[in-house]
Here is the input.
Amino acid sequence: MSKQVKQLDRVVIRFAGDSGDGMQLTGDRFTQESAVFGNDLVTLPNFPAEIRAPQGTLPGVSSFQVHFADHDILTAGDAPDVLVAMNPAALKANVADLPKGATIIVDTHDFTKRNLDKAGYDANPLDKVGEVNDPLGDFQVQTVDLTGMTVEAVKEFGLSRKDAARAKNMFALGLLSWMYGRPTEGTEAFLAKRFAKVPDIRDANLLAFKTGWNYGETTEAFAVQYEIKPATMAPGTYRNITGNLALAYGLVAGGVQSGLQVVLGSYPITPASDILHELSKHKSFGVTTLQAEDEIAGIGMAIGASFGGALGVTSTSGPGVALKSESIGLAVMTELPLVIVDVQRGGPSTGLPTKTEQSDLLQAMFGRNGEAPVPIVAPQSPGDCFAAAVEAIRIAVTYRTPVMLLSDGYLANGSEPWQVPDVADLPVIDPAFATEANHVVRINDDGTEDKDFWPYLRDEDTLARPWAVPGTPGLEHRIGGLEKGDGHGNISYDPANHDFMVRTRQAKVDRIAASLPPLEVDDPSGEAKVLVIGWGSTYGPIGAGCRRVRKAGYHVAQVHLRHLNPFPSDLGDILGRYDKVLVPEMNLGQLSLLLRGKYLVDAIGYNQVNGMPIKAAVLAEAIGNLVAEAEGVEVDLSTATPDQTTQEV
Here is the structure.
């Protein structure tokens, strides 16, 4: 049958079901095929912290949201245009996020009284579809017995009903792939490889996927197919990548560019564990991974590796940083290169293990005893985690210091198209190991010099002390957590020496600012009176919010920080150009506090701590209100093209 084809410029789809329904796999496959097709995209996986939360309940709902478009986009979307709900709980947990007119594709099979009760429904909402008192009347509801049709389609393979029903996610994927013209070859190859050892499961999933596609093609229930053209991108080789994967690749690249063996000492913790998993696959690049018995042992291994002339790395989340704090202080005192990856999550304590937050900035800045300054680097997108990791290694090796790399759960699990960089464009990082004595003791009568090794004889530009690999003849020296004397490195309790060493370690971190490029201020008109400044994963929502305000005809500037300690040298001048400064953060105002303290600027916080990314539309309203106040005008954003709403072309 001939069906209508509509062209759209963007779509936001959310797959939702029980944590055992394969929603993450379904969303990932849809994302991979969209990336192959050439769309720009951003994803938002969202799942329970429990390995298997109670089936059929709201806390057990797992979802995967993908926003794909024919042009540059910045966020995973404020609200889904399409919700695929596999059971009552999935519908109940997500329906409040839908805008009017959104499409709901719901699997009717599990809408039994028992499951409705678990989800908190007094009555089946699907029974009233189309009636006057329809609770889903604001939406386009498509009821499909996904499970029943899947079981019927694969019965030839003799699977149990339970095993057969598990292929329903592939039926749903096939249906959505038909609706939006996604390629199918990649998913078919993926299923064939993944289930190669269990032919019946492999063939059942492949058939379910094809049956879902054919159902969309033949049924009268879906009369429209949608087309989203590929996005225009700069020439190059692209792949879809998550933040954790990009960060792991960045650590590998930093090791190669510095000529150092990367040694990761890590204890598994959500949402950072994938970094350990990925790095364990790259022994061919000189990467060594050690799964420690606890967080303290993990960083101890990393510091020991750096002492031995390798590049020590440890990965964790906020609770792990708390446990590692004393050892981070040891790395500060011993002035050894070390990269501490903190993939932030909701806290305090165990908090929200699978939800995102930016609440570790002050912990990274001050969370150690004594004056123990540590440089801080933060990526702004999943793909940017690669460059941020390389930058963290550059700073650590060049300045002989531990570096905090602050990612978060949204970046770690989310994905986007990433242009694979040219290796020739990556920075060369020189560890410049000490190989000989560096301090002249005396000049002999014949003009020759007698030298010994001073472990604290510093580089004039970076204030970095020599990195002497143990076993190098003549370079024996003391190192440890007790204060050392300037120059000679022997233990010292002299008050003046301690004051000098504390100030020197701080000055070393401050010197990093001189090596940073000027900040890029996005102020297209040059007439903005309001500056929106952020860090980390707020880059997408801030950018989308600013776009929305500008489309409505108003002026706003944006700047985003990668380096949070030290701040870039030109930040103070930039802040001084604007009448109002807005600081959106997924915390209660940590960057705002630092900006107020250092630059005495009246930073206005926009703060959210609900475990989810900031919504661009809500942030745009906050920006608009500030623009109205600064310029003395009324701001109306209703004429702006919503950055996260489906637009028909």
In short: Confidence is low (pLDDT under 50) at residues 644-649.
